[in-house]
Fold:
Amino acid sequence: MINPQTKLSAPILTVEHVAVHFGGLVAISDMNFEVHEGELVSLIGPNGAGKTTAFNVITGFQKPTQGNVTFRGTSLNGLKPHEVTRLGLVRTFQRTSVFEKISVFENVLIGLHRRTAASLFGTLLSLPKERSAEEALREQAWEILRLVGIEHEADELGGSLPYGDQRLLGVALALAASPRALLLDEPVSGMNASETARFVELLNKLRSKGTTIVLVEHDMPMVMGISDRIVVLNYGRIIANGTPSVIQNDPEVIKAYLGGGIKHA
Amino acid sequence: MKRYLPIIALLFFASVPLWLHDKYYLHTLVVAGIFMLAAMSLNLLLGYTGQLSLGHVAFFGIGAYTSALTSLGFSLSIFGYQITHEPWPPFIGVILGTAVAGLCGYLIGKLAFRVRGAYFVIVTVSFAEVVRLVALNWVELTNGPLALPGIPPLTLGFEWTGYMTFLSKAQNYYLVLAFIAFAYVVIKRLVYSPYGRAMIALRENETLAVSVGISVTRYLVLAAVFSGALAGLAGTLYAHYIQIIDPMIFMFLNTVTMVIMVITGGKGTLAGPVVGGLIFGIAPVILRNYVGPEVQWILYGVLMILIVYVLPDGIVPAIERWFNRPPTPAEKNGSSLALQTGKGRA
Structure:
């Protein structure tokens, strides 16, 4: 089922028997899937299918009712979101999430939090080691801004960027947190075609660097074009799991989700 | 120019006792300075992490009582054990008072930051009230409402340097000024470091901050420790300067004074509490020549409302906006992070 281009390796992320109940409502029932190192897996499904809930469970923002998530051999059960991030599993959010009143450059500096080496004592004494660490951090921030392509807006406030660039800044923040796997929640929703094209370009750049990516997205042409594998959710249940071409021809997917086909999506 | 402003201000304030000889005015400045220091500590929590501590006077009072008792000595019996403490030099009291207040900041932070926002306000208010009741009722230790009189003034020095006792107004003025400069540098280094960035990130968007790996508890508690310790330091200076303290030190009004200083000056800015502290520290002295105390309180209220209404971010951010109008709102050197540039783009 896996795209031949993807090397078969041990799964980096494993979701086993995960279920989430909100009172009587079953948001996710018995979800199982794996993501391999370097893969780009998309999670699709109609609104309310449980995609964002799945993200929340994986990244520690939501405790599963049952089941287990393992990332690079470590169980994420009971870990707090910031601890999950420290393991290298970093997410972005569905709604634009940037620090609006802070400059773009400093947004990225905040994102680099995990990479700071400054000790509290050294910081208070303003030791040379801490100052050079800060200098190195600034250099890394520029690198990330250039990679994402918003370095010309470094001085703008996060909240004053055009919408598409705010989404890019959100990704820059996540990238700054040194992800081994990046979870993107509807990154191109609300973007126009050229912004989406730019975003796909960025995703390809990240993939060439070996970053594993899990994508929740409604933009079907983009998902079909970029994914190694697609996991389809409906009513909190996985109804299909396979390459884009397999998914496109899966009768249950067509029935449950795509309706009349993908051409209008 | 902006870089040198703090140094120019420091030099100016250092020159004040040279031309201002009126003891009453100097006294006013010393007390204003002590409260300014407390306001600076409050700003670390309120301005940089966004958590309002409405019981900040507790740290101030704990610092004052700890230092006073350390330098006065005490004797009390608990559960049949007799504990006697011989008086220690006041500077040890200052260190202990700062440390104990910092420890209280740690405990309150650990407890209260599980519930943030309004609940944090309630926890801190309750904490201050509990501490006040203890100070009022544990007569054996604190003398209760009879106050702790005769607190020795601060003495610094070693056998080989000779000793200096901070008795005069001018001496105490310089002492307080030195501690304000010290606190300013500590706070500045903290908020411009990755630690401060983490605090500001939590203030601006907690969910996003957590998603990049910032631990909420760790950084809020860190801020509470520094905030509590600096407020405690201000309290110790107060005790050794006024030389008598009673449970009235825990008055809610004292917390309100600090909050007003921070909010009018500009929360989340380094200079905000300094400017606010100057205004509300000196205003009573100027106003008393013209109006009675009742009218003064009304005037403060009006002033406060006016400032909050016209300059919701406070005075310092407003001045900054005025000077930064044409160029970019956020400079590359990182200065804007610690300053609320929120509504600054016209």
Q: What stands out?
A: Residues 128-148 of chain A form the longest helix (21 residues).
